[in-house]
Every structure is written in structure tokens, then in C-alpha cells.
Amino acid sequence: MADKPEQTLNIYALLIGIDCYMPNLLPDGSRYKNLGGSVRDVNHVEAFLVDERKVPKTQILKLTASVNPNDPTKPLESPEKLPTRQNMIDSFRKLGEMATEKAQVYIHYSGHGGRAKTVFPSIKGEDQIDEGFVPTDIGTSEGQYLRDLDLAILLKELVDKQLTVTVVLDCCNSGGTTRGDVDIRGGEGIDEKPLQPGQELVAPLETLEAIWRSLTEPTARGLKASGLRVARDYVLLAACRLNEYAYEYAFNRETRERNGALTYWLLDTLRQQNPGQTYKDLFDRINAKIHSQFPQQTPILMGEENRVIFGNELAERVYAVPVLKVEKNAETGEMQAVLGVGQANGMSKGAEFAIYPRTTTDLTKKENRVAIARIIQRGATDSLCKLEPIYGEKLNVEDGDRAVLVSPSVNLVRKVYLIDQEAASAEDLAKPSLPPNKLLPEIFKQQEKSLEAIKNALPGNGWVELAEEVVAADDDEGVAYQLLLNNKEEYEICDRTGHPFAGIPPIKTSDPDAAAKVVKRLVHLAKYHATAELDNTDKDSPLAGKFIVEWLGTSDIYESGDKTPPKSQLKPFADTREPTVKVGDYVFLSIQNDSFQALNVAVLDLASDWSIEQISPKGENFITIESGKKESIAIRAISEGEDIVKILATVGPINFRWLELPSLDEDIHSKGFSRLGNPLEVLLVAIDKEQPPTRKLSVARTPSREWTTKQISLTVTK
Fold it and tell me: Which helix (H) or strand (E) holds 207?
């Protein structure tokens, strides 16, 4: 077992837990009912920090509202200890005064989350929504929400003091009904309570507006999305997404004492923490544990997810497939696992993954593997796998372990044909230009050796293999690329018809490691084109025709953070069939969900430099568009070229960042699923030709019914 993480005194904490809401009936008749586990949550967090992290109690601020058994409308604590809006604001700022420079700041909130009509209409726009913490006194005339813009200012103040900030929110913004030992942390509707006289903003309006604008910034390349609020300078772990529930549950069956699901599994995982683990490692296990118990609760992680837990250093970013559930097949007795990857990612049956313990930080060492998982039943966003032990090792796989693709199925592999050209004859040499596929005699002598170098460099890459012959151009399983030696003694990569790809300069055969560079480019192209071809062709899917995407127009006066202008104020495209935008201008994309269920959506830019980047949302894996709703996204044109914009939507939660690629010839650092550290090696695959199973043959939901894609082009000019 690994050593315990190093204990530190350099942690300062603010813990807020609210069980008692007094009175809990709002003027419009809605209510925030009392909870049973929020105060227990923060008490348990405090005990962990003091007992296991050795944090002095003098470095911990705590606001709680406990239910008084003699009077449920009045908490046990004295007024100065209660989580009112003003007490929370004062505690945030006191925390910043207490903490020393470079210290760790941990903020934990357990209680109700709420939604209210915005009190910042000049910043957000009329009829917009504020989200935030619900104080214990919300039902009183003085009670007021601690709203999202308030929190943004308070967190920025901490970050500006060079503090390393971690925020955990065990709450949600939606209410609902439950049975048994389960309850939901959230309100029943949208409150219209305004700020009361004497209730001051945490900062002047111009400061709040500047914060709102600064929440998005241009990216270094390609297209860029704006108007989406993300955490960049701190780690934020939240209990669920906007349209989901945060549950509290009686995990202790003897005492029937409740805890928030997020807090319970957070502490359980922290107690098993190993040195070097990141917040992403922490999240993978928490997500697996919660989602297996409460399918309607999907935790989210934002910000510096590759930061070491309670540390300042950033680890190499790793996107790994989580093991969501481990179970034994009742009929065969074989061990199986559900992995968080599926058809919507481009996976197919037969793909194999190496399983690593969640405590392992190095996914490059084979000796750290504990099992092999092979997909036997593919879903839309997760897949059932058969588990096989590593030779000589005991099979030991747990929820929250991580999976790395080690053997792509045959459909992942693309073929390259090496063109063997003829030597030019004397007659050919006498012509003004050489005929196609003819080489100068001195170049022809080098052809065999040059092509042999490519043959020797191809084995082992896993994505591109040698084709023995060229097949028909319309054969999807045939040759994808052709490679030839030109008369300048250079390698040229061509498409399946033999035409050189635009924007890919040839490589001199005399360059150091020329053959290896060619193979690296071929692998890059294979991954790029597999993402471009990712599609759901099931016409019977309930999502077919229900996902509407269109360009609205352009603007040269819009600035990041502005309210999205109506279509009537945008400049229309001169030719809607070939939309064009100038570098520096904004183009507006409309995404409409006409299906009967909420969809999780991500937007990818497949750029002309052969890079792939998720341009919306920037800080999260996806945005959720409710049924019947529309989302408009502002995208800034950064660089010239022909881009493909691909919009992907799923019913279940998914991470499409695994599809990201740098520009051609840029190094792909260790941030993915395989030994090469490539985030796309688990995903880039053309969709299978097989039809989804019928309802009669399988009780499982048809995967293709749960995801869809749209793809549109855009030309960026100077």
C-alpha cells in the first residue's frame, strides 16, 4: 500500500452546513424544507481536516444551522454562527485575511441550492436567473440568497491573494419528491425575492459586470466559444448538474443518520488517498460511486482538475475511462465491469482496455495493470465489458478504477498503401514535365529503401497498418491513405484517390527520423478523420430530426460577455451554403433541442491545421439543453482556414474532450488513454456498420437512440 499523503498545516477552511430553514415557507407558497445531513456533513469534514490532516481548529471557520428538536423553526446556534447571507460574506473575507500567501483554502457548502430571478438585470439581462446558496433565514424578510455573482467576486478575492482554492458544493437547484431514507437538496421553483433596502452588493455594479465579462477569454487557436461561466483558477466539485438532484441518504443503516452523497463519498475517497493523486482521480471514484446509487445525480468537476489534492502542483493531465460498476454475471459467474465509454464516443465491440487501480498515478507502466476489459455489449455512453485477470495476478477491480485502451478493434485501424512508381524513361525525360507516377532515375534508386523504412516504422502504432493493394475508392474498409516518394526525394501523404492533402508539407527522406515522422502524421490523420466521420445514421432514433443546428449570422461589434443579440441584429451570410466569417469577428450558432428529453451537448472545431478542440463549453464536459429549449453560442473566428464544426449530443453524461488533438506535428503530451498519452486513442473510430439490437432481442436500450451529431462547415478569411 502506498504511503499516506503528507499532512500539512497550510490549510484554511470555511465550512457551511444548513439543516434548519426558518421559517421555510416563502411568500409565493414554495418552500425549502429542513434537511437532516448538511450539518453532519461539515462536522465530518472538520473531523477529517483536524484528525487526519492535522489542521488546527483555529484555521477553520464554521457556520451551521442545526434543527432544534424542541422548535424546528429555530436553529440551535447563536445568531453570529448562523449561515445568513451577511455572515457567509463576512466569513469568506475573514478566510482571506487569515490565510497566508500560497496557502490552501478549502470551502465546503452543504444545504439547499436555489434559483431566483436575477437582481443583476443590467448585467445578465431581464428575466434571467441567479443561482446560489440558500441561507438559513431565507423565509424571513431579511433573508437573501448568496448569488452566483456574489460568489464569483468572493472567490476572485481569494484567488487574487495567491491562495489555492478548492470549492465543494453539496447542493442542487432543483426540488423533487423522494421516498424512504433519501432527500433532495434543492428548492421547488424560481424565487422572485428582490434585494431588500440595506442589503448591499458584495461589490460595485461595474466590478460585478467586469467579472461577468472576464469569465470567458479567447483561445490561442481556431474558434472560441463565449458567454459560458467556467472555473479556471480554482477547483470546483459540485454535487450534480443543473437539471439533476443532489441527494442526502442514510448511509449508516444502524443509526439512520444522513449525509450528502457527494460529501460521504468525498471523505471516503480522501481517506484512501495516495500521494500524487489529483482531483480528477478523486472525482472518478466519487462519480462512479454516486452514479451507481443515484442515476439522477451526476457530479461535475471544473477548473484545475489535474491539480494534486491539497497541493499547488499540477500533474500531467490524464483523461481516463472510469470503471463505473463491477459485478458478477449471475448465469456464467464471470466478472464484468461497466466502463464510461460507448457508441457515442466511437467505441465498438471487441475493444480492449487495461484496468489500473484508481490509486495509480502512472498509467504508462504495464506492471500496474490489474485486469483486461473487453467490450461485449456497447451502450450509448457506457459499455459492459468482460474482465480477465493479468497472467499470474488475482482479479481485483473496483468502482472508480481507470481504463486505458490497449488494443483497438479492427474498425479502428486504417490502411495506407505505399505507391511503387516506375523509373522515367528517356522518352519521359524529354517531355516538358514528367508523367504522373514516374520518378527521375536517381530518385527511383532510392524508392525501395525509402518505402522499406516506412514499412519498418509502421508496426506497433495500433492505428495505421500496411495495405497490400489499392481497392475501390468507395470501399470504407479499404485504403484510407496513399504514400509516395516525389521527385524532390520527399515523402508525400495523399488521400485514398492519390491527391496530396492540403496543408501537409512533404518530409525530406534525409530528415532525422523521417519515417517515424510520417507514421506519426498518418496516426494523427486517422484520428482526425475518425472524429470527422463520427455519426449516428439510425433514422428510427427518437433524436433523428429533433436536433436543429444553424448559423445565425456574424457580428463585428459583439464583445465577449455581451448578451447574445437577436438574429435581426446580426449580419447575414452572403451565401448560406458556404458561410464565411472574417478573422476577429463573432459567428453565432443556434442549437435547438426538439426532442422529448434533455440533451448534453458539446461543440468541436475540426480546424484546417488538423487540430480538434472543444470550443463549447470551455470549462465543462458539456452543456445541458432542456427539451424544447434553444441555446445560442457566440464563437470568435481566430485563424484563417476551412473549419468543420461538429456538434455532439447525448442523453447520458459524456466527455468528448478525449477527441481533442493538437495541430499536426505538435507533440501530444501524456493526457490520454494509452501508453503514448493520446487522448484520442480510446475514441477515434469510424462508427460500426452493424445495426443496433432490436427491442425483441435485447432488454437493453438501443444505444443509437441516445446520441446524435450534426456537422457544419465554416470558412474563416482575413
Answer: helix 205-214
The pLDDT tens digits of the residues spanning 412-458 come to 578 899 999 999 999 989 988 888 889 999 999 999 999 999 999 99
Residue 252 DSSP SS3: coil
Give the pLDDT confidence of 659-706 residue by residue, as tens digits.
888 899 886 543 333 222 222 223 322 222 222 122 111 212 235 567
Averaged pLDDT score across all residues of the chain: 80
- d(C-alpha 225, C-alpha 259), whole Å: 38
- The amino acid occupying position 23 is P
| CB of 26 closer than 8 Å to CB of 139 | yes
E-assigned strand segments in 445-585: 464-466, 479-485, 490-494, 507-508, 547-555, 580-582
CB-count burial class (<10 Å; 0-12, 13-18, 19+) for 267: middle
- What is the Cα–Cα distance from 296 to 314, expressed in whole angstroms? 31
3-state secondary structure of 38: helix
Contact indicator for 214, 160 with CB cutoff of 8 Å: no
Grid cell for residue 637: 473566428
Which amino acid is present at 464? V
Is there a contact between 124 and 104 (Cβ–Cβ < 8 Å)? no
**510/450 Cα distance (integer angstroms):** 10
Cβ-count burial 508-544 (b if 16+ within 10 Å, e if not): ebeeeebbebbbbbbbbbbbbbbbbebebebeebebe
Contact present, 593 and 546 (Cβ < 8 Å): yes
Q: Copy the grid coordinates of residue 53.
A: 490532516
Cα dist. 377→370, 383, 419 in Å? 21, 6, 39
The residue to which cell 485486469 is assigned: 371
Q: What are phi and psi of 513, to 5 degrees?
A: 55, 35
What is the full DSSP assignment across 90-124?
Answer: HHHHHHHHHSPTT-EEEEEEES-EEEEE-S-HHHH
Three-state secondary structure call for residue 529: helix
Is 355's pLDDT higher than 70? yes
Report the Cα 141 to chain-centroid distance in Å.
41
